[in-house]
Amino acid sequence: MTEATATREKCKGCGREIEVCSCCEEPHCPAAICFGCLNQELKQTLRQPHAHGG
Amino acid sequence: MGFGDVSDYVDGKVDWMAAGLPTEGTNAQHPRAGDVARKDVPTCSLTEKLGDVKTRAKAQGWDAAVVVNEERVVFGLLRAKELDGDPQQLVEKAMRPGPSTYRPYVSLHEMLHTMVDHKLVNAPVTTSDGRLVGLLLQTDVAAAMEKEK
Q1: HSE of B86 in the Cβ direction (CA atoms, 13 Å)?
Q2: In a designed cystine with B95, which of A31, B76, B115, B149 is the match (CB 3.0 to 4.6 A)?
Q3: Quick one: average pLDDT of A5-21?
Q4: Which of residues 30-89 of B touch A (CB under 8 A)?
Q5: Residue B39 contacts residue B131 (beta carbons within 8 Å)
Q6: Do A43 and B100 touch (CB under 8 A)?
Q7: How would you class A31 by CB atoms within 10 Å of its CB: exposed for 0-12, middle for 13-18, buried for 19 or more?
């Protein structure tokens, strides 16, 4: 296992692998979250209700 | 309908709120991140020396500074840990580049939750085009929420 793989974290929202927590940017954050999920959590962006354009 | 002067804010309601512009309705009465963020946070440029910024911040009672350009767009953040670095170092080398920023309309409840979860003592609040509104302190958020009860 490479070092890069070993240090990857999972987003608490979507489970996607992320390099570092988008919120605190600290390694081994217990509440690691990706940029997209952080913005949704804070309601800075809203999930599109449909996958298509309308 | 009796309106004399009507404008269409093309960028939408969220962008309006992100600019810290006034809102109406039930939720408008509750303080939000932009209301509690401290507007007097010290700022500095990329080319200043860390020691000079630390001295200036300390003199104003701060252990943090926000790195901005001439239009107050946030480039980085200097928390206590970064300010304690080599005083001869340039700010651009010492700062936390591109910190996560938060919009002024985010509720205090959500901000406190995030700040506690991630052990953030402070967080920069900016408009959607990245201009600094102020620095939000976790202690201020907790105090404002206590006052709201």
Answers
A1: 6
A2: B76
A3: 86
A4: none
A5: no
A6: no
A7: middle
Q: Are B82 and B96 in contact (CB under 8 A)?
A: yes
Whether residues A24 and B102 touch (CB distance < 8 A) is answered with: no
Residues 1-54 of A with CB under 8 A from B: 21-26, 29, 31, 38, 41-44, 46
A to B CB pairs, distance under 8 Å: 38
Report in angstroms the alpha-carbon separations of B52 from A23, A33, B39, B88.
28, 35, 21, 9
Model confidence over B10-55: pLDDT tens digits? 888 888 888 878 888 887 888 999 999 999 999 999 999 999 999 9
pLDDT digits (tens, 9 = 90+) for B46-65: 999 999 999 999 999 999 99
Among B96, B110, B120, select the one facing A42 at the smallest CB separation. Answer: B110
Whole-complex ipTM: 0.74
